[in-house]
Amino acid sequence: MPRGRALALSATAALAATVCFGVAIDRLRHFSGQIAHQSSQSCDKSIPQRAWNESNRQTLHFGERIVLNVAELEGQVLFRNPLDRPLRLLLPPPSCCLNLTADKQTVPPGGQAAIKLRMRTRPAGTLQRSVVVRTRPHGPSLTIQIKAQLYPPLKLSGPDRVTVHRGDKRTIWLKLYQYAYRTSELEQQGRFHIDGGTLLRCQLGQWQPCATSIVERLSKIQVQIEGPAESEPDAVYRTVRVASAEGEAVWPVLVEAESWLRVEPAALLLGPARRSA
Questions:
Q1: Distances (CA, A) of 19 to 7, 8, 10
Q2: 110-115: which pairs have CB atoms within 8 A and are 24 or more residues apart?
Q3: Which DSSP category does 25 fall into?
Q4: Which positions of the chain have pLDDT values less than 50?
Q5: Are strands 248-258 and 161-165 parallel, antiparallel or unpaired?
Q6: What's the pLDDT at 247?
Q7: pLDDT of residue 69
Q8: pTM for the full model?
Q9: According to the model, what pLDDT value does residue 212 have?
Q10: Where are the beta strands (DSSP E) in 53-197?
Q11: In the prediction, which pLDDT does 245 show?
Q12: 10 Å Cβ neighbour count for 123?
């Protein structure tokens, strides 16, 4: 092959390689730019999300209360929109025990909305519950934590079931819890009223600090209850009710009939003894 033709082919090959390398570099830069753009967008979303989780968590603490039957709790929190676009609040559906309302359904950028909470619950000691309010389009959520210490004036505790002979009576011990404010008049012996059984004795305990502003007294009462009558089924529920001037407490107990054990002489069961031949 002539030398001039070989040089021409080498120059052409070098030029083609240079063009391909340039195209590859341009594609690589474009792809890198897309990755960087997507990473910046994901970072823009992840950074405020961490801030949302930290800032949009509020607690409603209702303290210690003595509740007669049902506690009605009401409180209010503020939701702030940290984004540059409006957000629509998605409140949980109302129920018999919990209801949330807001003064506005759509929160403008940088604005805020007042969310009112109404809750009905029975006194059961420590109350801890969380409610989440979400937003659309994808935005921060608000977590409302509800805390309270709710006590009834009186509370009973005892066995769930007992066995009693028909027509007979059985004695059981129940624990009586009393809760009162430190400044209130304390319950004295002899002011209890018992239904569903006969009060035999009452051993009053001492008042002890229960919470910040509540005191508790644990007493023991001995109650006599009747077994199922002949006309009643083998298992019946008896309800022991303890009432006082401050309130009442009810304790259901399942009373099951127990059959009498009759022991017959062995001669009647096996017959007279036989003599061996």
A1: 19, 17, 14
A2: 110/81, 110/82, 110/84, 111/80, 111/81, 112/78, 112/79, 112/80, 112/81, 113/78, 113/79, 113/89, 114/76, 114/77, 114/78, 115/76, 115/77, 115/78, 115/79, 115/89, 115/91, 115/142, 115/144
A3: H
A4: 7, 19, 31, 35-54, 185-186, 189-190, 262, 267-268, 273, 275-277
A5: parallel
A6: 83
A7: 86
A8: 0.65
A9: 78
A10: 57-66, 71-80, 87-90, 98-102, 106-107, 112-121, 125-136, 142-151, 154-157, 161-165, 169-181, 193-195
A11: 77
A12: 21
Ranges for all domains in the chain classified under CATH 2.60.40.10: 54-151
Which is nearest to 139 in space by CA: 192, 100, 71, 83?
83
Q: Is the dihedral of CA 188, 194, 200, 202 positive or negative?
A: negative
**CATH homologous superfamily of 54-151:** Immunoglobulins (2.60.40.10)
CATH of 154-258 among 1.10.20, 1.10.287, 3.40.50, 2.60.40: 2.60.40
Residue in this structure with the two tokens 């209360």, named with its chain if needed: 65
Angle at 150 between CA 145 and CA 154, to 5 degrees: 165
Helix (H, G, I), strand (E, B) or coil at 42: helix
